[in-house]
Amino acid sequence: MSTDTLLIDTASRIFGDHCDKALLDAAEAGEFPQALCQVLADNGFLQLAMHDSGFALADAFAVMRIAGRHALPVPLAEIMLANRWLNQTDVLATVGLAAGEKITAAPWATQAKLVVGVSELGADAIVVRVGDVEQGANLAGESRDQVAATASEPLACGSDEPYELLALARTVQTAGALERVLELSLDYAGEREQFGRPISKFQAIQHNLAVLAAEVAAAVRAGDAAAAALGTPRQRVEIAAAKARVGEAAGVVAEIAHQVHGAMGFTHEHRLHHFTRRAWAWRDEFGNDVFWRRELGAHIASVGADAIWDFIATRG
Questions:
Q1: Model-level pTM?
Q2: What rounded mean pLDDT belongs to the chain?
Q3: Based on the domain organization, do 230 and 166 belong to the same domain?
Q4: Which residues contact 210 (CB under 8 A, 6 or more apart)?
């Protein structure tokens, strides 16, 4: 993924400066991080995915990965994509799943003026003005609200496939969260001593950390490959492969990380859970790994036996 270095450095600095444990805990308790959202707006992040932003769409997904690495409590991916499809930044907009006369799983709909509803069935989308909101949350404690869609209007998203882009958003966010889990695990293993030496010196721990690192590397590479395929005929299949692979990695990485951390990793005071719970939650949102494996399998089956190797080995 070719990405502006200054953009990534700026995102890393701003997210790192603001996303402390107190802010994450407050967001889980239902307090919208308005000050952080304003900082993101002031620095142009909320319009990054818009067609006239001056950046490639892949750059926006690279920033989403950084957001995942910091467990950013603002739904940056949804706001970015909603602004792209609505072609506006005047009011706060978010995205959820269109389900009959409702839009579900919309982050912070209590704070938004507009909600875009997307379907897994195609490129169709709707937009509603927020009225009554039924509040909810995912496994990570992130806001996932429900709003009525009885007065919705159709929304054209151009050549975008909204559900695919949202699946990719969760893919790269999860990859970012797994990167932070690896960092935390390496730091803890280097600091925690047992029998007079750091536990990172024990072969069993070294083996687990090696597996963890390999899974994280695979997750990051899968997300990068899918982002690189945006706008190409391979977009859906690359996103399917990436979402499935990252979902698999999330389970392995979280399990090993909690084993390495021991009892400390299960405490609320430690930051590990902010990232493992998000990885667990995000792997199921916008299609879990089973859903996307089926999509990938169906696509591969349609290629035919004679062309399967070229399909696997050739990109671009």
A1: 0.95
A2: 94
A3: yes
A4: none
**Span 18-75, pLDDT tens digits:** 999 999 999 999 999 999 999 999 999 999 999 999 999 999 999 999 999 999 999 9
**What is the domain-level CATH number for residue 212?**
1.20.140.10
| 8 A C-beta contact, residue 253 and residue 182 | yes
Q: Which residues, 6+ apart, have CB-to-CB distance to 186 below 8 Å?
A: 200, 209
Contact 272, 258 (CB under 8 A): yes
For residue 125, give the H/E element and its range. Answer: strand 125-129
Q: Which SS3 state, helix, strand or coil, does residue 114 take? A: strand
Q: Does residue 147 share a domain with residue 179?
A: no
* 74 residue type, one letter: V
DSSP string, 274-314: HHHHHHHHHTTTTS-HHHHHHHHHHHHHHH-GGGHHHHHH-
The residue type found at 56 is A
Q: How big is the CA angle at 285 (ends 276 and 117), to the nearest 5 degrees?
A: 140
Backbone angles phi, psi at 138, to 5 degrees: -95, -170
Are 15 and 143 part of one and the same domain? yes
Q: What's the full length of the chain, in residues? A: 316
Burial of 212 (0-12, 13-18, 19+ CB in 10 A): buried
| Helix or strand (DSSP H, E) at 97 | strand 93-99
User: Which residue in the block uniquely carries the two structure tokens 């994280």?
Assistant: 216
Number of structural domains the chain divides into: 2
CA distances to 101, 168, 236, 239, 301 from 298, in Å: 30, 19, 12, 14, 5
Q: d(Cα 171, Cα 157) in Å, to the nearest integer?
A: 21
Q: Which residue has the tokens 């070229």?
A: 310
Domain of 218 in residue numbering reads as 162-313
* Alpha-carbon gap, residue 79 to 252, rounded angstroms: 30
